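Subject: for your reference before the review

Hello V.,

The reviewers asked for a structural picture of the protein, and I figured it would be easier to keep everything in one thread rather than splitting it across files. Below is the amino acid sequence we used in the manuscript, unchanged from the supplementary table.
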Amino acid sequence: MSFDKLIRSPILLDNSLKEIKILRTRKVSVTNKLVPVSNATITLDDVEDGIEIRNFVKIFDSKGLLGIYRVSGLANQYTKEQQLKLEHGIVTLRDDIVVLAENVEKIEGNPEKILDSILAMQTGSIKWIKGNIDSNTNSLNISIDAAGNNLLEVLTSLAEELDEYKITFDQSGSQWKIGIEKLSINANSVFRLSRNIVDSDISVSYDDSELCTRVKAGAAGYIEASTVNIWGKITNDLDIDDDVTEEDAKSYANKYLDQHKNPSMNIQLTAIKLKELTGESIDDFDVGYLSKVILPDYDTVINQRIVEIQISDLLNGYENQKVSLANRTKTLKKMLAAQEKENKSLRKQVTKNRRGGGGTKKKLD
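And here is what came back from the structure prediction:
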């Protein structure tokens, strides 16, 4: 495939998704994220009439429809240009709040059940429906604090819990679909300085906030990671129920330790997508890919998951792309968000106790 493949210009849609016009576009910048919400910025040659907040825009790449996004902001520089700020169409879920039975705070079950609950609470004219769900998720049991949140926040929490899966979006038909698919456990692509990494823009950072080398695992007792002699004993209680068998507890503990036995590592680099030139699958990359990162400062190959890709100019799709990779998708941001949810829950309990005049009062620091 040649570099001169044309990419279609964005198309403006009204709130009912009817086409209004083709936008005269100078530049399209896109940030694709493993955990929603992806976003985009469109720069127009001139200020155009008829574009309103909450209109929708079809954005295309070299493969076809990239997605349908909603206009969240407008900036006009009269006589010069116009900029549109957009968020992926999944933001329609932000328009509805979670409605639960009295005294119910969580949505629980396997991912498909939680997704069914989210979709059932939509009230807008644009409603997402359930797409393909990987059957391996049926065995997962997830609990999400949902009371007081909007539907998008619940979906984002679900996406953050699915370390081995990703949420997918299909906007190609008249009804938009949300699915869940398995992420590959084998490396899909390779990043190497001598091949596709732009050496002027690469950084590596570490974080030990989730580091754990020893766990208390119910009937299995204490189990240590292979890295305990490197990092020392850093112990967590997995709070496994007493009725869980020793074998199952040990299996869960080993899986947990495998994910937390080293500090989390994040890599940001700028890379060139060479697949269009070489035809080699290792030269392709996308959000969710597990990638081998080969750097001169390290003796071993680093396996990292792509969590975000920034494309500064989609109309020139082979330009350098900023890629963010992590060895765990659970980040400090997620931990802080979880802590804030816990604080919110405690505040509600304090208020309830004060109004009810009974129970134990919990003091917040």
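For the response letter, the relevant points are probably these. The longest helix spans residues 332-356. The longest strand covers residues 64-77.

Happy to draft the paragraph if you're swamped.

O.
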